[in-house]
Task: inverse folding
């Protein structure tokens, strides 16, 4: 437990930020392949799709393997790209980056046979799609069991997008960022010290109007009682923000990993999430660790909980499983609770329903702390699905 006074700053970006455009395209490709496959064949759909977007180009690269029974390519990847960009809001054909005029290039191969043999064994458990360390976290400082700074930062960027799409401010454009600094005392948030909001806008808009919108409408509606007269603001700190999105800046899948997780409250652990099917444990196991950490906090075994798991590629049993309660609970009780959770990749996929095409819903405004995602649901003893055998212990480490 951290005593005394300290601050934590977290950032978020809108769906029109170039890196999030890339993430959303990659997750849209993944969902399209899962939707195209028969349910009984989704387990062998393999998608590892990276996206780069810059200027008027989108470049797809990676490995995609579809079930053997597919006699034709089941997905029009170019149309998936264009539809994703339309949904984000880049539809102005007068801009360099626009859904109807962009050029799509592809560098796609199939998954390596050597990896496939480890992940898709003829018999036995499904192996991990890669090595790595994954982390899940939960804290009781908010009802969503998320750190307050990242939660507020996401709400601000989502508010920008919602106001843009609803036409409340016709000059709002898709690109934007937020940053929130929260001061803590004795491990609890006590006030919001500083808010940064940068939002793309139409040409000719007076910055005073942007400042007024953020300070008088956006922030009060989002921050509520956390907004005080002492809260400092930085709005479009460099001044005009007309040039934005992939027209101006390069976007790349997987560059916003701290935005995607806990805003720096704990280490990130493994790799990026977007564009990866659930055989890649850096995605699926991170979701599962969050689910397990939530249960420790919900059951009041600790006020804060971090769950860590590590894998070797091709092996089902994790190399290690560990828990940290940061002095806010009994780590042995928390560890005992984790014995109810089966961390093998195949069972993780089944327990959380990760073969469903749900990934486009995860891309923006954080993969955690939002309702409607399986790893954000509660699991009580006797009703949850992740069981190990009676008396079976976690791996020694």
Result:
């Amino acid at each position: 437990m951290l005593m005394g006074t300290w601050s934590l700053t977290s950032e978020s970006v809108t769906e029109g930020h170039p890196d999030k455009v890339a993430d959303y395209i990659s997750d849209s490709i993944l969902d399209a392949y899962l939707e195209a496959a028969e349910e009984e064949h989704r387990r062998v759909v393999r998608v590892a799709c990276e996206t780069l977007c810059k200027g008027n180009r989108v470049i797809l690269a990676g490995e995609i393997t579809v079930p053997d029974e597919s006699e034709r390519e089941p997905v029009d990847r170019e149309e998936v790209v264009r539809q994703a960009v339309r949904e984000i809001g880049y539809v102005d054909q007068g801009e360099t980056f626009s859904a109807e005029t962009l050029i799509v290039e592809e560098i796609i191969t199939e998954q390596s046979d050597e990896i496939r043999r480890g992940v898709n064994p003829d018999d036995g458990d499904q192996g991990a799609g890669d090595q790595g360390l994954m982390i899940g976290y939960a804290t009781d400082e908010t009802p969503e069991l998320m750190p307050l700074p990242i939660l507020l930062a996401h709400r601000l960027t989502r508010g920008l997008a919602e106001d843009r799409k609803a036409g409340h401010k016709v000059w709002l454009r898709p690109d934007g960022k937020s940053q929130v600094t929260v001061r803590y005392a004795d491990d609890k948030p006590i006030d919001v010290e500083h808010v940064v909001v940068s939002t793309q806008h139409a040409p000719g808009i007076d910055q005073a109007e942007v400042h007024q919108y953020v300070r008088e409408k956006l922030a009060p509606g989002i921050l509520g009682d956390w907004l005080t007269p002492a809260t400092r603001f930085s709005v479009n700190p460099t001044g005009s923000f007309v040039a934005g999105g992939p027209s101006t800046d390069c976007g790349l899948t997987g560059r916003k990993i701290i935005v995607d997780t806990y805003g720096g409250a704990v280490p990130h652990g493994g790799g990026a999430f977007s564009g990866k099917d659930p055989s890649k444990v850096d995605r699926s196991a991170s979701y599962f660790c969050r689910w397990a950490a939530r249960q420790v906090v919900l059951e009041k075994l600790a006020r804060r909980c971090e769950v860590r798991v590590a894998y070797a590629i091709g092996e089902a049993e994790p190399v290690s499983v560990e828990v940290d309660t940061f002095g806010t609970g009994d780590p042995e009780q928390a560890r005992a609770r984790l014995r109810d959770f089966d961390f093998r990749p195949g069972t993780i996929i089944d327990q959380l329903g990760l073969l469903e095409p749900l990934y486009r819903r995860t891309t923006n405004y954080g993969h955690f702390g939002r309702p409607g995602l399986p790893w954000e649901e509660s699991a009580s003893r006797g009703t949850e699905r992740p069981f190990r055998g009676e008396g079976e212990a976690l791996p020694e480490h």
